[in-house]
Design goal:
This protein is an alpha/beta fold. It has 3 domains: 145 residues, FAD/NAD(P)-binding domain, CATH 3.50.50.60; 76 residues, no CATH class; 95 residues, Protoporphyrinogen oxidase, mitochondrial, domain 2 (Polyamine Oxidase, Chain A, domain 2, Alpha-Beta Complex). The chain contains 11 helices and 20 strands. The strands form 5 sheets. It has a 7-stranded mixed beta sheet. It has a 5-stranded parallel beta sheet with strand order 9-2-1-13-20. It has a 4-stranded mixed beta sheet with strand order 12-11-10-14. Strand 6 and strand 7 form a beta hairpin. It is globular. The two termini are 13 Å apart. The mean pLDDT is 94. It binds flavin-adenine dinucleotide. Flavin-adenine dinucleotide binds next to helix 1, strand 19, helix 10 and helix 11.
């Protein structure tokens, strides 16, 4: 018997291609994890922006087209800074900044990229200069990661922070507009609602899924999984629950680094239904300190329009009181000229994602790969963004689930 823990996009992918006897244990009362939608009053909301990235992943797109067709979107993203919108990424659009500041940033911009840096702060300063670090990266990342950037690996997120060549930076300084630059300039989204895409993935394996079954304990010596109501023997496990939670549920405890060293942030997001759409972009990064959210975005093709606002928190008991949160939302949307008055808001819903972004502290490299290797030796394949404690997209996770399941199928 094989046990899949979690019916998110990773667990569902694995379940659909397994050729062994299996059961999927899902703690929620529905499938999809973060890659689906939830209902609140009359509205269906995503778990903040969830767009598919198929760059260099044509096979994954073809695979997922079994469940839905996808529409592509040319990403329109911006940065909101100095009380105005400027095109993304800021480093290529210096002409939109105050002239003196732009000149200082340009003068500091290095001729060649550097990779040999001890931490993220050093990496950003070496590749973008001190001025741009202080103007954009530091205030934005402080809000986003809520961690000392000197304690984060230099290679973290490197793929998503484009380092342009200096020639392009000079062109941007002189006013050139760079359309669709940076990572994932095109994204895809199902033509049917996201929840129906997940429903289509769920249908072929429905009889194998047990909902409301939270895995509480894994006895790896006896090879038994325990939930509140039942116990299941296993030969292999495919796990998608966050790695820190998996480690605390292993009994007897493994001789592995303390799960408390696995750092992450939680995301508090608010979905806001609007009377009308006054601004047109997919998402905007907000370094401004006076605005508590680091990103605001719109879901594609919604009527009435729905935007989402995200903020990171490190202590979930420290959640802003809902009335204050509504005031923060009104303030932010007004600043960003998305609303003119609070009456432009039809409905608000807030949710929390307890483990959302992994913080790649300097210990990551010594903790995560050996931990995953040790689990594999015990027949536990931990996959997906949270199972591998990594920064991956849904497409990466589908790819990972296919690779792992194909390997298990051959055993
Ligand atoms: C704010 C935010 C924005 C994002 N935006 C994008 C984006 O635009 N594009 C993109 O590609 N990716 C995005 N991602 C990443 C994306 O959410 C993940 O890559 C993807 O959801 C991972 O899927 P998964 O199935 O591995 O995990 P999950 O979706 O987390 O599913 C895991 C499942 O396991 C279940 N589970 C957990 N613990 C237990 C337990 N003990 N017992 C039983 N079941 C359990 C959960 O209920 C859940 O259903 C974003 C993530 C966040 C947080």
């Amino acid at each position: 018997m094989l046990i899949i823990i979690g019916a998110g996009i990773s667990g569902l992918t694995a379940a659909n291609i397994l050729n062994k006897k299996f059961v999927v244990l899902e703690k929620n009362n529905s499938c999809g994890g973060l890659s689906t939608q939830y209902r609140s009053e009359d509205f269906w909301f995503d778990y903040s922006g969830h767009y598919f990235h198929f760059k260099n992943k044509a096979l994954i797109k073809t695979y997922l087209e079994k469940y839905a067709t996808f529409r592509s979107y040319n990403r329109k993203s911006k940065t909101y800074i100095f009380n105005k919108y400027i095109p993304f990424p800021i480093q290529l659009h210096l002409s939109h900044l105050p002239k003196n500041l732009a000149r200082r940033i340009l003068n500091e911009f290095p001729e060649t990229p550097r990779t040999d840096c001890p931490n993220l702060e050093a990496y950003l300063k070496a590749n973008f200069g001190e001025q741009l670090f202080c103007t954009f990266f530091q205030p934005f990342l402080d809000k986003y990661y809520q961690a000392n950037l000197k304690e984060i690996m230099a290679t973290m997120d490197k793929g998503s922070i484009p380092v342009p060549d200096k020639k392009s930076v000079i062109q941007g300084f002189k006013g050139k507009y760079f359309d669709n630059q940076g990572y994932n300039p095109v994204f895809w989204y199902p033509r049917i609602p996201l929840r129906l895409f997940i429903e289509n993935m769920t249908t072929p394996i429905k009889s194998h899924i047990k909902l409301n079954e939270e895995v509480l304990k894994i006895d790896w010596k006896q090879k038994m999984v325990f939930t509140q109501t039942a116990s299941y023997p296993y030969e292999y496990i495919i796990n998608t629950m966050p790695l820190n939670q998996l480690l605390t549920r292993m009994e007897p405890g493994l001789d592995l680094p303390d799960p408390a060293n696995l750092k992450h942030v939680s995301t508090l997001f608010s979905n806001v239904v609007l009377k009308r759409q006054r601004k047109r972009f997919h998402w905007t990064y907000i370094p401004e300190k006076k605005i508590p959210f680091y990103r605001v975005g719109f879901y594609p093709s919604r009527n009435p329009p729905i935007c989402y606002l995200e903020k990171s928190i490190t202590n979930t008991s420290n959640i802003t009181h809902s009335r204050k949160l509504v005031q923060e939302i009104s303030f932010t949307l007004k600043q960003l000229q998305i609303i003119r008055e609070p009456d432009d808001i039809l409905y608000i819903d807030h949710r929390m994602i307890p483990v959302s972004y992994i913080v790649f502290n300097l210990q990551w490299v010594d903790i995560i790969p050996p931990t995953l290797k040790k689990l594999k030796k015990l027949g536990i394949y931990s996959i997906g963004r949270y199972g591998t404690w990594n920064y991956t997209s849904m497409s990466d996770d589908v790819q990972m689930a296919i690779n792992t399941t194909n390997m298990i199928n051959e055993k």
